[in-house]
Design goal:
This protein has two helices and 14 strands, in the order E-E-H-E-E-E-H-E-E-E-E-E-E-E-E-E. The N terminus is likely disordered. It has 182 residues and is mainly beta. The strands form two sheets. It has a ten-stranded antiparallel sheet with strand order 1-2-10-7-6-3-4-5-9-8. Strands 11, 12, 13 and 14 form a four-stranded antiparallel sheet that branches. Strand 8 and strand 9 form a beta hairpin.
């Protein structure tokens, strides 16, 4: 595994920089895709030079036949345009990270009698962190109370939910409380 950050130009992964991970192990890629199938995660499919997108879900991964299947999008014209596209980019949010991969070809096939999209198993996946700093969850049972004295004399109170080098997350603060970075 290499630590890298994707730079996407025209749908292709042309370069990588620090901050993300490039997965190229077939086993890791197949296991990750199968987890997305199990978790029923939404998948954004970008096409036509990233100008258009449909949202779909991964249905199945067949490692032996080198195939990944995705459900059709909601709009027939979007599905047709996607099938005509020369390159498509897939993006999946995975908790605090994003996974991206591209495919030079996408086909429509039948899976269990239903029309679906099919691509080859990607040869690499770029997984990038959505945040600059890793967030650490604080166990709810031991979360300390955070008290903030406001300039107008009021006091806001909540429980610490997570923290990172970039800040903290607090649950239970007043809805009208305005918090500024800094």
């Amino acid at each position: 595994m290499i630590t890298a950050k994707p730079i996407v130009r025209g749908g292709n992964f042309n370069a990588v920089a620090a901050g993300s991970r490039l997965l190229w192990s077939r086993h890791q890629i197949v296991m990750m895709l199968r987890r997305y199938v199990r978790e029923d995660r939404p998948v954004s499919v970008h096409y036509d030079h990233q100008d258009k997108v449909i949202v779909t879900r991964a249905l199945s991964v067949d490692d032996d036949l080198d195939r990944v299947y995705f459900e059709y999008g909601d709009h027939k014209t979007g599905n047709t345009d996607l099938l005509r596209s020369k390159e498509v980019r897939f993006a999946i949010e995975d908790g605090s990270s994003n996974a991206q991969f591209s495919s030079p070809r996408i086909r429509d096939v039948l899976l269990d009698g239903q029309p679906v999209f099919q691509i080859p198993v990607p040869d690499r996946i770029v997984q990038s962190d959505r945040r600059s700093h890793q967030r650490i969850k604080v166990p709810e049972i031991s979360a300390p109370v955070v008290r903030i004295n406001l300039p107008d004399g009021r006091r806001a109170e909540g429980r610490l939910s997570d923290m990172s080098a970039g800040g903290i997350g607090v649950i239970g603060l007043a809805v009208d409380l305005k918090v500024e970075a800094g």
